[in-house]
Amino acid sequence: MAETPDQRRNASGERGVVATDPALPPTAIDEEVREAEDRKWTPGKIALWAGIALLGGLAWFMLAIIRGETVNAIWFVFASVCTYLIGYRFYSKVIERYITRPDDRRATPAEYKADGKDYVRTDRNVLFGHHFAAIAGAGPLVGPVIAAQMGYLPGTIWIIIGVVLAGAVQDYLVMFFSMRRGGRSLGQMAREELGVIGGTAALIATLLIMVIIVAILALVVVNALGESPWGVFSVGLTIPIALFMGVYLRYLRPGKVMEVSLIGFVLLMAAIVGGGIVAETPWGADIFSLDKVTIAWGLIVYGFIAAILPVWLLLAPRDYLSTFMKIGVIVMLALAIIVVRPEITVPAFSEFASRDNGPVFPGALFPFLFVTIACGALSGFHALISSGTTPKLVEKERQTRFIGYGGMLMESFVAIMALVAAISIDRGLYFAMNSPAALTGGTVETAATWVNSLGLAGVNITPEFLSQTAANVGEESIVSRTGGAPTLAVGLAHIMQQFVGGTAMMAFWYHFAIMFEALFILTAVDAGTRVARFMLQDSIGNFVPKFKEHSWRPGAWLCTAIMVGAWGAVLLMGVTDPLGGINTLFPLFGIANQLLAAIALSVCLAIVAKRGTFKYLWIVALPLSFAAVVTITASYQKIFSSTPAVGYFANNAAFSKALAEGKTEFGTAKSVAAMEAVVRNTAIQGWLSVIFVVLSIIVIATALLATARAFRNRADGTAVQDNEDPALPSRVFAPAGIIPTPAERELMAEWDKVPAELRFERGGHH
Amino acid sequence: MAAGLAVLTRGVRGVARYFGGVLGADAYAKYLEHHRAAGHVDAPLTEREFWRDRTDRQDSNPQGRCC
Question: How far apart are the C-alpha atoms of A257 and B27, rounded to whole Å?
């Protein structure tokens, strides 16, 4: 590629570095024009934003201050959407102005590396949907449900405020910095910015965190499908459906993605309806009623096979199906909540908000609420998506604010809707569904007695109510269906049946919800296993070079087996855990996810400091310190707390002591084998917490060192080397946000007049 | 009536095109566009070859999906 002298970056800053082709119209809106447009407050604009602020304020007032007997779900929608709009319009612009400082005269990787395959300029609105589909999955649907134990307000505040100040900031910054580096991954950026120690710690932490996240997502699916012939049948059918779609796309009609997705969707609906019919028959109930351990083993075997099969056969088609469902489901959920507007009877703060012995997840509100809700407020996993794929598709630098920051706001909205769906069901039912069988006893009678004995205000359930609800949703039993997914499914069915179909349709909606959650999770499990396998192969490859050859079968199979074995072991541990599984493991999932966020934010902190932005460093430091304090406190309590329900080692010691005293049952473990299992599980969980937190502290410390070094270099005038790709002039223009501004429209009109042969880059490089 | 129908058809087409874009259904069209614009002299991949190549490259370059 020919270089012009102007393509060099100069050290003083980013303005005026790239000279674009004079034969073309400008590739960016003139700085002053944009400023003027931004700063010009017409009466209409003032009225609009005043209206948004007032509506948002009123909604927060209704949720947080009034807290009547009941509160209407619509206030959740207004509070969140108005806060998102304000955060997007004002806060993300502060970040853009002072931290990222995008320059539309620079070509993005999609332009200067354009290959028509991986690097392709993509329309901003399409890319927004694409990015959103990649970041949103089962996480935001599950965490808020589990956190509803504390009441609706703590979760709501954390989801909405957390996303504006932390989650969306992380996604936006990681995406922007990765884009400036040609779409490099988070791991590569960590290595470059933090050095070998920080980079290696980040890599190992990421690998372990992926294992935990995949295992716990799998646990959610197993809990939703255990003893549910309908669920097992219809979710099981997704495998042949995906295989058929894969063959169809490969051999019958290549490239007809829309067509095959529609066919797949119809087959999926048929699978749900068929599941209801099959589960009614004695043979269907007999074959497909599987216990959790069997399903877990099935999932492990499936995970291994899926990860070594070629992508076209299973992963790619299921990914289409899952994206298709994702967007459909979310639109449906939003419509249903806005149309039905259910009344919420859950209190703002429940009895468990001030205690640390909640049955759904143990631990005090701070820090455990903030790790229970990860996806939707701040999710470190997004950093892996925001670096890599999406930055290679961005058309113009300024669009990263809309795609990165805006995309995460959208996910947060999904989390709010999941919360609303979950709290619209009866509170007694919520606790009967989400408490482990060790507490509820597993039958409707014992569960009703136990829930009523909790002394929760306004809660009085009968065994008949529990069996009736189970019958309505087409399940054998709904007692102790932990993991969040079944609760959300009941909530969704409850709302949707008021919208379409009535009680007769409840079972369909319930299994529809279970189906899409399982679909999202299975896709994440597959993709996660593959990504982790490659990370492992590359790491081993540093010592045994043969492993770096990705096509070397024995290496690929061995690494896949190691990764599947690792998450499979954690999954089995969760399934057989006498203490319940979800309540002991879910905090570990949240801690892992938030630690990854701390790692990603550390990398961003070092980059921002190296760019010489010290005055506004707090924008990154704020979410980083919050994530660090929350996760380190949570890990500390998990490791050192003397309350057995909270501390892994305290629990370990209690059960070891009981065993040593020759007891044959202790607490919720009713046999010596169960007691031994608790001892083993708590030791593993405890040591995992230790490893996570140590690795993360190393990463954070190296990032702080890099930041301090950048500050020193700045003070004594040493040149700081940055790792960005060289700036190349852009030859295209596109608006930054969803709606083009008048100035952008004007410029677009100018570009429309440019003859086609001038408009696209003519590569001399082929 | 006919005008209304035309608007509706356009709307449905637009939505379908948007969904197609999000799913990545237009990848081959974009590849052809790039191929043309970049002034390659050799013939582009056929549709079948392109999709084959696309999924095969994903085998060794997997993309994460989030939780």
Answer: 10
CATH number of A42-228+289-730: 1.20.1740.10
Q: How many CB atoms lie within 10 A of CB A162?
A: 23
The interface predicted TM-score of the complex, written ipTM, equals 0.94
> In this predicted structure, what is the pLDDT of residue A274?
96
Its sign, for the CA torsion A587, A588, A593, A597, is: positive
> Quick one: pLDDT at residue A56?
98
Q: What is the pLDDT of residue B41?
A: 82
The CA distance from A425 to the nearest CA of chain B, in Å, is 24
- In this prediction, residue A182 carries a pLDDT of 94
SS3 A666: strand
pLDDT of residue A743: 94
Interface check for A742 against chain B (CB to CB < 8 A): the answer is: no
Every domain of chain A and the residues it spans: 5-40+735-759, 42-228+289-730
SS3 letters across A3-60: CCHHHCCCCCCCCCCCCCCCCCCCCCCCHHHHHHHHHCCCHHHHHHHHHHHHHHHHHH
**B30 contacts chain A (CB < 8 A):** yes
Q: For residue B1, what pLDDT is reported?
A: 67
Q: So where are chain B's domains? A: 25-59
Residue A29 has what pLDDT? 93
> DSSP per residue over A530-573, as a string?
HHHHHHHHHHHHTTSGGGG-TT-HHHHHHHHHHHHHHHHHHHHH
C-beta separation of A137 from A523 below 8 A: yes
Nearest chain B Cα distance for residue A140, angstroms: 8
- The residues of chain A scoring below 50 in pLDDT are 1-16, 762-766
Chain A residues within an 8 Å CB radius of B13: none
DSSP-derived secondary structure letter, A392: G
List residues bridging with A106 in a β-sheet. Answer: A729
